[in-house]
Amino acid sequence: xxxxxxxxxxxxxxxxxxxxxxxxxxxxxxxxxxxxxxxxxxxxxxxxxxxxxxxxxxxxxxxxxxxxxxxxxxxxxxxxxxxxxxxxxxxxxxxxxxxxxxxxxxxxxxxxxxxxxxxxxxxxxxxxxxxxxxxxxxxxxxxxxxxxxxxxxxxxxxxxxxxxxxxxxxxxxxxxxxxxxxxxxxxxxxxxxxxxxxxxxxxxxxxxxxxxxxxxxxxxxxxxxxxxxxxxxxxxxxxxxxxxxxxxxxxxxxxxxxxxxxxxxxxxxxxxxxxxxxxxxxxxxxxxxxxxxxxxxxxxxxxxxxxxxxxxxxxxxxxxxxxxxxxxxxxxxxxxxxxxxxxxxxxxxxxxxxxxxxxxxxxxxxxxxxxxxxxxxxxxxxxxxxxxxxxxxxxxxxxxxxxxxxxxxxxxxxxxxxxxxxxxxxxxxxxxxxxxxxxxxxxxxxxxxxxxxxxxxxxxxxxxxxxxxxxxxxxxxxxxxxxxxxxxxxxxxxxxxxxxxxxxx
Length: 505
Description:
Elements: H1 2-16, H2 24-27, E1 30-35, H3 50-59, E2 64-66, E3 73-75, E4 78-85, E5 88-93, H4 107-118, E6 133-140, E7 143-148, H5 155-159, H6 168-181, E8 189-195, E9 199-204, E10 221-226, H7 230-239, E11 244-246, H8 250-259, E12 262-277, H9 291-300, H10 303-311, H11 340-349, E13 356-362, H12 366-378, E14 381-387, H13 390-398, E15 404-409, H14 421-424, H15 436-446, H16 451-467, E16 471-484, E17 487-488, E18 503-504
Parallel strand pairs: 1-10, 13-14, 13-15
Antiparallel strand pairs: 2-3, 4-5, 5-7, 6-7, 8-9, 9-10, 11-16, 12-15, 12-16, 17-18
Helix pairs in contact: 1-7, 1-8, 9-11, 10-12, 15-16
């Protein structure tokens, strides 16, 4: 099947190589973008796809914005913000803002939005985005307070992206179905047409704030089409009927780049790979309970070689249980260089001079997994390899049936270690270490808004995780973007394309 797909892609490239690029996008000031995933609802609170995040950033604004270069939180709809105490945020709003339908944006809209999404009866799809909110209250026309259920310093991350502000009057009338069919926001682009599952059309919103951190959009119109077949997307791009696509496999990206008709830009993402090991013995009395064995495994795998040969792009070896840019991610931890001799010595010291056999699972990147299994085999560790779909493997881990697995985690593009380290090491369903000290440190970092205290707590936790080799962090992932030579587009590591910053060359 892989050979067929590769041949098919090559044929598509050959077919369109003789077609002159139309450059229609620049000619009529329309950026034509294609992706493969169909949105269940354009309403940002009722879809779970990453493509939905793209739609949200174009169409709606939140109170804050995370600068993708500095990772700082800066005011957007708000003109200032502050922590009143550990569970209260206060925002002073910009004046003179309007929604796409002409409604004024003020404190009533903010309070309505926050109180509506905080109510579980609203049915918001991704509850983790909003379940930290207790309530919001209006102080005056341009000032609000948002109360949290408990201290949650990562709230700023969600305020900056996951809680877009909706117009109270309009949304009260039309609800999610109406918003999905005729969306109304206050963002840099307004939606003028929705063909469910097939097409979305935006036009530049001239009344958008001129001095906001998103900048002033320059491209007049954006048209998105859903095209499930990768080869059809490629054909559209090379013929000039599309200007942008993403998540292009490395081999196809190489061929596209060699055509000279499009640009290929690779960017690292928040997603990291890791090997989780049952240090707590919840799946039984396996060798993984011994830290010497876990350290041997960590020395046995040549992560650099796999990155260079298979993962490629801007991916890098990761040594800590977090993505490097995330707040609180500590890089000064115990590192495990590729050293098969040391791995064998550690196994012998642990009482396994001839190695052992262990169940090992994965759900993606079979070639990466097989390369790791080969490295383990060289030091005497034999694996019973199981390859499952993600949901099946996740459930199997949570049922305490998986001693060792190659997994990945994207942190929902949240730039905070609470979105990854705290998820896996605070005795939840995915924690195979169950270290009480690590849990205590992470909970300390998760429940104070004092950044210095947070960093110290997370640093200690991550150092302990690495020293005990509870995980073997592997590498970051990357994404290939392909787009017209006419387009100036810069991808970011959070894997959220910001078309409002794109322009024509």
